[in-house]
């Protein structure tokens, strides 16, 4: 099974032996994760905007249908 203690010791040893390589790897990994997060957030915002626009369109349509069904007063 996966031994967390051994893995943590390996990471600490790696950071002690090669601090610049370790920091470079951590920074690159975090940059990629932040980039993925930004892209997914942007997609979610676009989907939310599209859904709100569609709901407004449906509401406007329902209002127009309700107006058309009202009896006209002469």
TrEMBL record:
InterPro entries: Smim15. Residues 51-66 have a biased composition (Basic and acidic residues). The keyword Transmembrane applies. Residues 51-74 are annotated as: Disordered. GO terms for cellular component: membrane. Keywords: Coiled coil, Membrane, Transmembrane, Transmembrane helix. Coiled coil: none annotated. This is Small integral membrane protein 15. It comes from Lynx canadensis (Canada lynx). It is found in: Membrane.
């Amino acid at each position: 099974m996966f031994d967390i203690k051994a893995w943590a010791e390996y990471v600490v040893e790696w950071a002690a032996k090669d601090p610049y390589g370790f920091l470079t790897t951590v920074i690159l990994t975090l940059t990629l994760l932040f980039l993925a997060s930004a892209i997914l957030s942007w997609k979610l915002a676009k989907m939310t905007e599209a859904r709100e626009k569609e709901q407004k369109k449906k509401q406007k349509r329902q209002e127009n249908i309700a107006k058309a069904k009202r009896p006209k007063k002469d």
